[in-house]
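Ligand-bound model needed. LHQ.
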Amino acid sequence: MSETAVRWALDGAGVFRITLNRPERLNAFNQAQHEELLAALNRAERDPAARCVVITGEGRAFCAGQDLESLGDMPVGDLVRRYYNRLITRIRSLEKPVLAAVNGVAAGAGVSLALACDLIVMAESAAFIQAFVRIGLVPDSGASYFLPRLVGYHKAMELALFGDRVSAAEALALGLCNRVVPDDQFEAAVTEWAERLVRGPRSMGWIKRQLNRGLERSLEEVLALEAHLQEAAARSEDAREGIQAFVERREPRFTGR
Ligand code: LHQ
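Prediction:
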């Protein structure tokens, strides 16, 4: 389906693909792009046929963060709380894997958007820029949560204080993405991972919840959650199928139930 600022489509395999669609502004966020992206994510959550979500950008960029030319009248704190914070928590609470297909440069909150996703594939020519400091602002949209956890405090400070361009290769070495792929193989690599994800079991959503709690909670709390979710997972049709397939020495056929 085509909206103005965001396009989305659910393919026959179950891949829900969302494309930020303001290429002339390097897919920087205005209000419409925020609202349409959130609506698309909500739709992906609700639709049982959607088994995984891919977020990418139209044109040569992934996302240049906030559109600095359409800041509007809303106080910045409200803008962050109302749009960016909701977007980041929406991605992390969506109980389906979300893959960031970083086709080109990501800056400011555009990097945070990628880091909020569960898997990150970058094209070789893509880059991350912690652009906030360049314009006298502070990291937002979860950047100060994600960065030190991913790269450690001192490297996170270097990235945040200097705002230098981090190439895809450096991002991979730092643990800021999962994979870097030559530009001409990027689409195929994203599709390959998305198609693996849509064949995965119902438990993928619970795995996501567990690893997110694992980042924040104590060992005791996480152990309790694992026991609780293992019980739920074991009752799922997919777990029955997985165990049956193992016993019958064949590949499982998961349906997401
Ligand atoms: C843009 C933008 C853009 C508007 C490229 N806005 N037009 C949250 C809430 C509240 C307040 C503020 O902040 C936040 C969070 C944030 O995200 S703050 C960080 C905002 N983002 C930035 O500071 C990045 C700004 N962009 C850049 O530094 C460069 O465009 C990058 C390094 C991303 C790409 O550089 P180039 O490849 O050289 O492209 P370009 O600069 O020539 O951009 C192409 C066009 O896109 C250009 O328009 P024009 O009319 O001259 O062709 C840019 O003005 C426009 N554009 N980013 N964020």
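The mean pLDDT is 97.
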